[in-house]
Amino acid sequence: MPYFRYEAINPQGDLIKGLTEHKDIDLAYDNISDSGLHIVKIQPSGRLADLYLKKVSSWSIKTRDVIEFAKSLSVMQRAGLPLLDSISDIAEATENRHFREMLLDIRRAIELGSGFSEALSRHKNIFPEIFINLTAVAEETGRISESLSDIALHLQRMEDLKSAIIRALMYPAFALIGTTGALMFWLIYVLPKMSELFKTMAIDLPPMTQALIAASDFTSSKWYVFIIVPVMVYVALKLLSKNEASKYYLDMAKLRLPIIKLIMFNKLLALFAEQLRILIAAGVTIDRSLDIIMTVVNNAVFRKAVAGMKEDILLGSNITDAIKKHPSLFPNIVIRMISIGESTGNLTEQLNYLSEYFLKKLDDVSEKMGKMIEPIIIIVIGGMFVVIILGLLAPIYDLVSRMGS
Fold this sequence. Notes:
mainly alpha; Ubiquitin-like (UB roll); Receptor-associated Protein; 3 strands
C-alpha cells in the first residue's frame, strides 16, 4: 500500500506532520479525520519514497518492540482495559517513531470497524503470521490476554533461537574471513616481492615455488575473480532455492554436513516443538497447525515430512505414529515425549519441554562450536603456511647449497 504525507491540526491546536499507509488517498483522509485531526494538507509520497519508507520502517522496528507490545497489551487486557485505549497508551509510551505510527494506524483501523487480527494483517512485514493467526483465534475464543502472553513468550524464544544460531556461526565466519585475508595478503603483497628476488638470482625454482608464484601472479592480476565467484555462487544458490526440487537437495545437503547439521537439526526441532506448542495451546487444530508450521520452516526436507505427517493425521493416525515414519528427522526423545503427551493429555507441556531442550542444545552447540572447529582451522592454516614457507625456503636453501659447494 502507498504512503501519504499529511499535515493536520490536533484538538489542542498543534500542527502535526506525519505519514500514513492506505490503499488510496480517500481512505487515508477519512482515517486521519476519524482519529480527531483536522487535515490541512495530504499528498502521496511517491513510489521511490514508498519503497524507502517501507524498508526504513521495517528495519527500524525490531522484534523486541513487537515482544514488548504483546507483553504490555496482554497485561492491559488482563486488567480489563479497552483494547483501543491500551493500544493508544502503548503507542504513547514507545520510543520508536515508526512503531508508534504503526500502532496508531492499527488503532484507527479498529475504530473503522476492522478486527484486531485484521488490523495487524495490514503490517505483515512486522507482525509474523503466527501472531496474526493466534490473535484471530483469540478473538473467537475470548482468550486475547492469554494468547498475547503466549505470543510474547514464543517470539522471545524465536529471538533466542536466532541469537544462538548467530553465536554458533560467528566463530566459523570470523575464522574463514581471517584465513582468507591472511592468504590474500601473502599472495598479493609478500610473494610478488619474493618472486622478483628469485628472478634476479637466475636459479631453477622447484615445482612448489613455481606453483606459488603462479598463484601469486593470478591473484595479483585477477583479484576481482575472488569477489565475483562468491557473489555468483551466492546468486546461483539463491536461484536454486527458488526451485522446490533443487531446494530439496540443497536442504538435504545442509542436514548432512558434519557441523552444520548440528545447528540445522536443533533449530528445526526447536522451531517445530515451539510452533506446535503455541498453536495447540491457542486451540488451533492439528492439521491447521501443521499447515502454519510448513509456512514457517525454511527447509524443504523437513517441510515434506510435516506434509506427510498432516496426511497421516487426516487419515486417522495420531501425532506419534505420524512422526515415527520419519525417524531420520525426529529423534527418539521427540517421539517419546509426544507419545507421553498424547496419552496423558498434557501435550503442550511435553512440547514446551522439547522446545526448551533443543534450544538448550543449540546454546551448547554455539558455545562449543569454537572448540569443535578450532582443530580444523589450525590444520588448514598450518598446512597453508607450511606450503608457503617450504616454497620460499626451498630455492633459498638450494642457492646456499650451491654457494657452499
